[in-house]
Specification:
This protein is mostly helical. The chain has 3 helices and 3 strands. It has one domain. It is elongated, with a radius of gyration of 25 Å.
Length: 119
């Protein structure tokens, strides 16, 4: 009877170690998936961002806009009327990145505040 108890303790110890190893691997996988998502978002933004020669004009007032990269998304900002314009899919990218940031940190990233510093 004592041998069965000893045997089950050893078995239980192996199970605890296996569970701990599995949890560690799952955490590492989650971290790698987050890094991969960030790299994909950055690649998407770089691939779809117009080059610097691509001049864009504000649809509201006609002023030449300046492009700036914010959180791997190119945002076109009008210096005259302060309009902000995004290309197709960029708002979804911003929202997804903001959700991920909030999930990881519990606070917002201040994406829009970066566009208008001091306001």
């Amino acid at each position: 009877m004592l041998d069965l108890v000893e045997g089950s303790r050893v078995h239980c110890g192996h199970e605890i170690r296996r569970r701990a190893e599995r949890e560690k691997l799952e955490r590492e996988r989650d971290e790698l998936e987050k890094k991969l998502a960030a790299l994909k978002a950055d690649l998407y933004a770089r691939k779809n961002a117009p080059d610097d020669r691509d001049t864009r004009f504000c649809p509201a007032c006609g002023t030449e806009m300046r492009g700036q990269i914010q959180s791997s998304v190119r945002v076109d900002v009008c210096s005259q009327c302060e309009g902000i314009y995004l290309d197709k899919g960029e708002l979804q990218t911003i929202v997804a990145q903001e959700r991920e940031y909030i999930k990881n940190t519990g606070k917002t990233s201040g994406f829009w505040g970066k566009l208008w510093p001091g306001k």
